[in-house]
């Protein structure tokens, strides 16, 4: 939640007339793609257009806004429950991360070891089945 | 974290109701009416766990103290394995008001490991269910005041013939004889289906209504969004105010038998022929679209159930708007009872 998503600088993006973000992805220039492009048609670049919400999230991926603030922003704008906003946003950020459209800026621990964060569910805190 | 009794959010599942702080949401749910488990989380950690189990019909029921013994034995063994300090305080006195426990066999206890858990186990004399509720906090966190606000709101069976269901802020009442048959708790679209002898009730709530509708009308959006569900019906859509909101009423009847015969594999996968009565409305205050659908086999079986269900549906929280009289707060019946993820973005 403290990490700050940041857009991949290599990607070019702009807003279209509808205010939607258009990301241009340039084909990788490796021997595999060069070889494949001899056989199949692989465009030099492709564009991905994000919808209204996607654009808002994309704009917030500036390396300064952390995930918790992004969730709050979505909740405020779309009147979402915390869980709704959290699940949707994390899933979306994961997709963007897997496609290498964004990276995550993490705070370096000041004292080296970092402080222990509470876990989501403790060893004794969930999943106990209980017999009568 | 503090919550006043009239504040907070209602969690209602399989006849159990509990009022919890606003930011506690369902994290996991399993089981059915006879036994199950539900977990509520906040943004940081697990905050509450509820387990329930029907008392066995045959044989002698164990006293509640022995049920707690068994539960704690398991926890102790786990703590030993992980080398964690584990302390237990049986018959703890953290509950100030015990009137809600009158007439029930119960035990309140505390345990502490890497968390501190406030537990209450009780057997309801009326419904015969054993319920264990635990509230979890960090060791340095004082949860006693909150525990005294949350525990007394616990009810383990509905009073009357309607059950209150409440999840992620969607609250409605369902006749007791309808059993939960399907749950689909996606972010942005919650759907619960209930069944009873040829009748099916579906309750939906969709978030980000304005984004979904794109300034259009519900009557245009609905047939497209639910195209798959509507393919077995000849239906009509009428504009109608529902609970003070702009809404529509949908009436469907089964498509002709001839037409169904022409479908691929009509005999191997026959769909039941059903009638449909539904109400759909756009709640501006909550930016949501709510749907109540009743499917039934015979033309005259509707019985106005859709209207009853619609009346018991809370589409936005108290104080969110001053319009739509009668659905701020809990419906009268409810007041008596004291994983996931669709990408919306992109």
What does this structure look like?
The complex is a heterodimer of chains A (132) and B (346). Chain A contains four helices and five strands. With 132 residues, chain A is of the alpha+beta class. Chain A has a single domain (4-105), classed as Orthogonal Bundle (Arc Repressor Mutant, subunit A). In chain A, the strands form two sheets. A three-stranded antiparallel sheet of chain A has the order 2-3-4, covered by helices on one side. A two-stranded antiparallel ribbon of chain A has the order 1-5. In chain A, α3 packs across α4 (82-98). The longest helix of chain A is centred in the last third of the chain and has 17 residues, at 82-98. The model of chain A is unreliable at 110-132 (pLDDT under 50). Chain B is an alpha+beta fold and 346 residues long. In chain B, 17% of the residues lie in helices and 40% in strands. Chain B has helices spanning 64-82, 144-150, 209-213, 218-225, 227-230, 257-261, 305-311, 332-336, and strands at residues 9-13, 16-20, 25-31, 35-41, 46-54, 87-89, 105-112, 115-123, 129-138, 162-167, 170-175, 179-186, 189-196, 199-207, 233-242, 245-254, 275-283, 288-296. Classes of the chains: A alpha+beta (132), B alpha+beta (346).
Features:
heterodimer, A: 132 residues, alpha+beta, Arc Repressor Mutant, subunit A, three-stranded antiparallel β-sheet, two-stranded antiparallel sheet, disordered C terminus, B: 346 residues, Protein Transport Mog1p, Chain A, 2 domains, seven-stranded antiparallel β-sheet, 8 helices
**Number of helical stretches of at least 4 residues of chain A:** 4
How many beta-strand segments of chain A? 5
Q: In whole angstroms, how far apart are the ends of chain B? A: 33 Å
> How would you describe the oligomerization state of the chains in this entry?
heterodimer
What form of chain A results from the Cα inertia axes? Answer: elongated
Largest interface: A-B, 43 and 55 residues
Q: What is the CATH third-level topology name of the largest domain in chain B?
A: Protein Transport Mog1p, Chain A
Residue runs with pLDDT of under 50 for 5 or more positions of chain A:
110-132
What proportion of the residues of chain A form beta strands (DSSP E)? 15-25%
Rounded radius of gyration of chain A (Å): 20 Å
CATH fold naming of chain A: Arc Repressor Mutant, subunit A
Output mean pLDDT of chain B. Answer: 84
Mean pLDDT of chain A: 80
Largest sheet of chain B: 7 strands, antiparallel
Provide the spatial order of strands within the biggest beta sheet of chain B.
3-4-5-9-8-7-6
Any idea how many domains of chain A?
1
Classify the beta-strand content of chain B into a percent band.
35-45%
């Amino acid at each position: 939640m403290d990490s700050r998503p940041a857009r991949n600088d290599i990607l070019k993006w702009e807003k279209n007339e509808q205010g939607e973000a258009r990301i241009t992805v340039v084909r990788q220039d490796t021997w595999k793609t060069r070889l494949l492009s001899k056989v199949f048609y692989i465009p030099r670049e492709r564009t991905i257009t994000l919808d209204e919400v996607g654009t808002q999230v994309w704009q917030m991926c500036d390396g300064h806004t952390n995930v918790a603030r992004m969730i709050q922003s979505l909740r405020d704008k779309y009147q979402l429950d915390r869980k709704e906003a959290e699940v949707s946003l994390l899933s979306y950020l994961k997709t963007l991360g897997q496609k290498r459209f964004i990276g995550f800026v993490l705070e370096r621990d000041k004292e080296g070891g970092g402080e222990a964060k509470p876990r989501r569910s403790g060893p004794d805190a969930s999943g106990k089945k209980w017999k009568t | 974290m503090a919550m006043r009794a009239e504040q907070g959010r209602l969690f209602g599942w399989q006849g159990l109701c509990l009022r919890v702080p606003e930011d506690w949401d369902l994290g996991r749910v399993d089981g059915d009416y006879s036994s199950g488990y539900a977990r509520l989380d906040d943004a940081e950690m697990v905050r509450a766990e509820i387990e329930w189990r029907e008392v066995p019909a045959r044989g002698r029921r164990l006293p509640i103290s022995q049920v707690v013994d068994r539960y704690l034995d398991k926890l102790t063994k786990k703590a030993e394995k992980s080398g964690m300090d584990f302390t237990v305080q049986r018959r703890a006195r953290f509950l100030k008001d015990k009137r809600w426990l009158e007439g029930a066999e119960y035990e309140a206890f505390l345990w502490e490991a890497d968390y501190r858990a406030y537990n209450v186990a009780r057997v309801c004399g009326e419904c015969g269910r054993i319920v264990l509720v635990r509230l979890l906090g960090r060791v340095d966190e004082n949860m006693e005041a909150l525990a005294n606000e949350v525990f007394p709101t616990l009810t383990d069976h509905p009073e009357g013939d309607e059950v209150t269901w409440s999840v992620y802020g969607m609250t409605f009442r369902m006749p007791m004889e309808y059993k939960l048959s399907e749950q689909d708790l996606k972010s942005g679209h919650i759907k619960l289906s209930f069944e009873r002898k040829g009748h099916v009730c579906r309750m939906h709530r969709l978030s980000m209504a304005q984004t979904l509708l794109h300034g259009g009308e519900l009557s245009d959006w609905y047939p497209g969004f639910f195209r798959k569900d509507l393919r077995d019906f000849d239906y009509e859509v009428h504009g109608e105010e529902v609970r003070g909101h702009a809404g529509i009423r949908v009436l469907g009847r089964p498509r002709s038998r001839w037409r169904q015969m022409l479908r691929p594999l009509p005999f191997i996968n026959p769909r039941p022929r059903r009638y449909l009565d539904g109400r759909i409305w756009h709640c501006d205050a909550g930016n949501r679209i709510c749907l109540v659908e009743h499917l039934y086999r015979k033309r005259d079986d509707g019985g106005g159930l859709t209207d009853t269900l619609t009346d018991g549906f809370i589409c936005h929280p108290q104080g969110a708007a001053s319009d739509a009289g009668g659905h701020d707060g809990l419906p009268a019946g409810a007041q008596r009872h004291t994983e996931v993820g669709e990408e919306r973005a992109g």
